[in-house]
Design a protein that fits this description.
Elements lengths: L1 E12 L7 H5 L2 E12 L18 H7 L4 E5 L4 H10 L3 E4 L5 H18 E2 L8 E8 L5 E5 H4 L13 E2 L1 H4 L7 H6 L4 E2 L5
Parallel strand pairs: 1-3, 3-4, 5-9
Antiparallel strand pairs: 1-2, 2-6, 4-8, 6-7
Helix pairs in contact: 2-4
The structure holds zinc ion.
The site of zinc ion has 5 residues, from strand 2.
């Protein structure tokens, strides 16, 4: 059984090395839509794969980190990185370029980490993230599955190398959320939301 949850965010980037000069040489923005496809072979007490309300907690907080932010690639020009961080309160730095393809891989790994650390309390079982679809425009999207997210030939993504600015962290329910997840600290789902 599959369920799908949609998220939206507005974000700015440059995609170095791509064929289009507008994309590779100018800071620009997109209204992103991100679809998460969850899967399970079981249903919980509510006879659901995973209550949509639960996807509005940590997972939404992490995806919302990209909203009204600029996303940077750590391999970009150091002067550019320094200037963007100086002039934008909200930024996220990734070890890969912020193309729709890499967004799909990064978000897949983030959600996978959250699910791995989540203590399910409503008899959910075997809930996995099957796929992440990132729509950068109305006409094009990228879709990542597990093998894509973990593919070294597409660029190794060490989750610990993803950086969120203080401006992003300050809006989380806990500014140390990411460190806690990386340490493997458990998140106990609320019994009622
Ligand atoms: Zn773009």
């Amino acid at each position: 059984m599959r369920i799908r949850k949609l998220y939206r965010f507005e974000n700015a980037h440059i995609v170095r090395g791509c064929s289009s000069r507008r994309c590779s040489e100018s800071i620009h923005g997109h209204s992103y839509e991100v679809e998460l496809i969850f899967a399970s072979d079981h249903l919980d007490r509510g006879q659901m794969v995973y209550d949509f309300g639960l996807t509005k907690l940590t997972i939404r907080e992490l995806i919302d980190s990209f909203d009204h932010a600029i996303t940077l690639w750590s391999g970009d020009d150091p002067d550019y990185l320094r200037d963007m961080k100086r002039w934008s309160r909200r930024w996220v730095e990734l070890p890969v370029s912020p193309s729709a393809e890499q967004y799909a891989r990064v978000i897949f790994l983030m959600v996978e980490l959250v699910l791995a650390n989540t203590v399910m309390v409503n008899k959910e079982k075997n809930v996995t993230i099957e796929s992440v679809i990132v729509h950068e425009t109305r006409s094009g999207y990228a879709q990542a599955f597990k093998e894509d997210a973990h593919s070294p030939q597409m660029g190794v993504i060490e989750l610990g190398s993803i950086q969120f600015s203080d401006g992003v962290r300050d809006e989380w329910s806990d500014p140390s959320l990411w460190e806690r997840l990386l340490r493997g600290e458990k998140i106990i789902n609320p019994t009622k939301i």
